[in-house]
Amino acid sequence: MVEEFTNFMALNPEYGYLLGAAAFLLIIIGLILDWDWVLEPGGGYFNIAYYIDVFGRKKVRIVFGFISFLAVLLFIYGFFTYNPELYNV
After folding, report:
1. Distance of CA 10 to the CA centre of its chain
2. Which of 13, 42, 43, 51 is the most buried (most CB within 10 A)?
3. How far, in Å, CA of 45 to CA of 37, rounded?
């Protein structure tokens, strides 16, 4: 199963864009439903706990959702520009 998926992705790398879009859609769903793992404060470089303390959880969810939505659009754009035979007439 994993080998078939790996072979498929090797032959069709443009579908990696769709996987990225699906991942960001999952993050957007998590932001809408206020799942804790989406905004889990970590101690790394991108420490979201600081922004939650300064701006509040709701504003951080809105901004992070907007950024995630832009990422989904970019991934979909990448899919269609990397694979032009999808929309050739």
Report:
1. 21
2. 51
3. 17
